Amino acid sequence: PRDQGLPGAPLCSGEVGPGSVPHRSVIILSLEGIDRRWAQQLPAMAKIAEEGINFENVWASHLGSAEALAGIYAGAPTFTEPAVYALPQPQFTGLPRDLRDAGYTTIYLHGGDLSARQQRKFLESVGFESVEDIPPSRITDAHGVSDPEMYVQFRNQLQQVAGQRYLAAFATLGGRPGPGGLGADYAAAIGRSDQALGEFYSWYRHRTPTGGETEYERGTILVIVGHTPYRSTPSVPADFEVPLTIVGRDLVVPADARLRRGSHADISPTIRHALGIAAGRCEAGTSLLAPQLPDARLQSVALRADEPTLYVRSAQGFWARELATG
User: Fold this and answer.
1) Contact 196, 34 (CB under 8 A)
2) In this predicted structure, what is the pLDDT of residue 112?
3) Which of 212, 114, 128, 115 lies closest to 166, judged by CA?
4) Cis geometry, peptide bond prior to residue 88 (ω within 30 degrees of 0)
5) Triad 320, 322, 323: Cα angle to 5°
6) How far apart are CA 296 and CA 278, in angstroms?
7) Shortest CA distance to 269 belongs to which of 257, 253, 287?
8) Which of 54, 57, 65, 105 sits between 20 and 30 A of 226, alpha carbons compared?
9) How far apart are CA 220 and CA 248, in angstroms?
10) What is the DSSP pairing of strand 130-132 with strand 105-110?
């Protein structure tokens, strides 16, 4: 594999945004097993998409949530799991590290178990000072604890850092389908997760009962992204499409932003742009809020060892699947 988000990778973005609200905090919610088609059917997701910047052409980095971490938090190119979880593990730089160095509190809450494949080590290496997951003994759903319970825990964590600048991330895992497949139980679990998301969004966006300033009014940026496709074995390119919505006060939004094509690798550069800070040295993506996207972006991404398929992001902004040759 090549160009895996390590120092010296040739696809490092250089845009710096206007930073209209200095010292914004950032909340990232990454949702398991929800693709863009599911998101359109969920009431809370649909409402948030209407009120925020809803990017309509965003693709998951991989089939699994572990691989999505590298794209979202380190800006690594798609299908780079060998680089992220190799032994010894490479040292990635990431948005959490840069914000932590600037005085931010950085916390990560995972709705399942992080013990597999060095996921905890990766999250700590990119700069999360607090990484919390769920021990296997507490897992109640297919892969994690129920999302409504975890949203309450995440809000409690945010209340503990109130008044500080922070980057806080939460990954849901309670709604992912188990061995039984994608039946009515899955739809019910996703519905419960969406309801909990709606309650969280009300807390973020609307005035509190005590009349205090909301996170939205403070300038906090809320990023909601699907971190895995709905189907565990995608058969067509559309199966990789995931929701991405960004909400924030006074964000400068290009007219074509909603139609821009992107991936998980573009999330960190987009957040950096909104904060007005320089892009990471080794991020493969580009800010989706930049005034103009580069005229030419060609990103060849890793071959999977178990599948002779090459995923290519072209200058025109679409993804193609081609059999590898030679």
Assistant:
1) no
2) 82
3) 128
4) yes
5) 165
6) 21
7) 287
8) 105
9) 6
10) parallel
pTM equals 0.82
Token couple for 70: 């590298």
Contact status, residue 99 vs residue 120, Cβ threshold 8 Å: no
- Alpha carbon distance 178, 143 (integer Å): 7
Q: Judge contact between 241 and 35, C-beta under 8 A.
A: yes
Q: pLDDT tens digits, the chain, 326 residues: what are they?
A: 223 333 333 333 444 555 555 679 999 999 887 777 777 778 999 999 999 999 988 888 776 777 788 889 988 766 555 556 666 666 667 899 889 988 899 999 998 888 877 888 889 988 999 999 987 777 665 555 678 889 999 999 999 998 899 999 999 876 554 444 444 577 777 888 899 999 999 999 987 667 788 999 999 999 999 887 665 555 555 667 888 999 999 998 988 888 888 888 889 989 998 998 876 666 777 889 988 765 434 333 333 333 333 333 333 333 333 333 32
Residues 6 or more apart whose CB falls under 8 angstroms from that of 40 comprise 46
Cα separation, 176 vs 141, in Å, equals 8
For 27, half-sphere exposure in the C-beta direction (CA atoms, 13 angstrom radius) is 28
Q: Is the dihedral of CA 266, 268, 274, 280 positive or negative?
A: negative
The two three-digit tokens of residue 10, written as one number = 């040739």
The 10 Å Cβ neighbour count of residue 229 is: 23
Q: Which of 308, 43, 299 is nearest to 194 (CA)?
A: 43
| Cα(131)–Cα(288) distance, integer angstroms | 28
- CA distances (Å), 161 to each of 13, 130, 157, 168, 231, in order? 31, 12, 7, 9, 36
